[in-house]
Structure formats: structure tokens, C-alpha cells
Amino acid sequence: MKAELNEQALLKGLAQNDSRAVEALYKSHFSMIQHFVTNNNGSFDDARDIFQEAMITLYEKVQLDNFGLTCQIKTYLFSICKNLWLKRLQQMGKYSAPLSAQEETISVEEDLDRFEKKDAAFAIMDRVLNSLGEPCKSLLEGYYLNKKGMQELASQFGYTNADNAKNQKYKCLMRLKKLFFAQYNIGE
Predict the structure, then answer these.
(1) Is residue 121 part of a domain?
(2) Overall number of domains in the chain
(3) pLDDT beneath 70: ranges in the chain
(4) In this predicted model, what pLDDT tens digit does every residue of 119-133 receive, in sequence order?
(5) Rounded CA gap, 89 and 86, in Å?
(6) Which of 130, 137, 144, 154 is deepest in the core (most CB within 10 A)?
(7) Domain span holding position 141
(8) pLDDT tens, position by position, 133-174
(9) Residue 164 contacts by C-beta under 8 Å, 6 or more apart in sequence?
(10) CA-CA distance, 101 to 166, in Å (whole number)?
(11) Is the pTM higher than 0.70?
(12) Are residues 103 and 143 in the same domain?
């Protein structure tokens, strides 16, 4: 009930052009759209553009007297963004299925749930990686995020050879997995 009232307050604030409502919507929902767009052949700037278009659409809708939102704001924004992004991909020739076929196969709620679960998993992974400690954190980031080779990592961390660095990376990865799944299973 409280969430419904909060959403109604946000919509009312948006209709009154309240910058706090706009800021709250951005803080709450932009990362979800950024994640969707960047995982589907887009960039951060593309995500900002798409989200801005969706916010304008929502703003225009809340100005109408007969507008009644029948779902959560995040579902509405995600639906608009998804359709806008698929349309843009289609225009760029990176997506060939007609939008109507896509809408029939996957509901927005299923898509949204999937992205929320991924976001939660990424948040857990980030928290666990930060709690892992050194040199494991830097070693794993160097290999997986910065794409450094084992020889380079061996010299950077003072291992005698690439095989020793590889062994240490494996041990760190196993420790990370153990910590991650301990946290991930608690959240389910």
C-alpha cells in the first residue's frame, strides 16, 4: 500500500514538474534501463537517450486527465524503453524481428524480473568482490575486467611465473564463487 502511495506521489510530482520526482525516478529506474540497453548492443549514451525519451512520454501521459497507470512505474518505463530500443536497433539493422512478434514471445514483466534478478546478482558479486581482499580482488579484476595476460599479472604481483599466477587466480576464483553463492542463496 505504501509503495502505491509513493508511486502516486511520484506521478503527481512529475505532473507538477517537480524536480525531486524526476530525480527520484532517475535514481530508481535508470540503472535498470542502462543494464538492458548496454546488454543489447547499446552504450551508456544510448541508454540515457532512451530513458530520456521514456521520461518525456511518461511526463506527457501524466499531464492528461484520463491517464491511469495500471502497472508499476518501473514496468511502464521498462516497456517504453524496451520498445524504443528495439525500434532503434531495427532502424540500425541490428534487430530483424518485428516488434509485434517480440511482444508476443516475452512479456515485459518476465523481462523485468529477469533483469532485476541479474541486477541483484551483480550487486552481490560487487559486494563479495570488494570483501575478497588483496591480492585476490586485484588479480581477478586484472584478468577478467582488464583482460591482462597471466605473464603480465605474474610480474605485477611478484609471482615467479605465469603458472603460479594462474594457480593463485584459480584459488581466488574458487573463494569468490564460494562467497558469492553463500550470499546468493541467502537472498533467494
Answers:
(1) no
(2) 2
(3) 1-5, 94-113, 115, 186-188
(4) 777 778 888 888 888
(5) 5
(6) 154
(7) 132-187
(8) 888 889 888 888 888 899 999 999 999 999 998 999 999 889
(9) 154
(10) 46
(11) no
(12) no
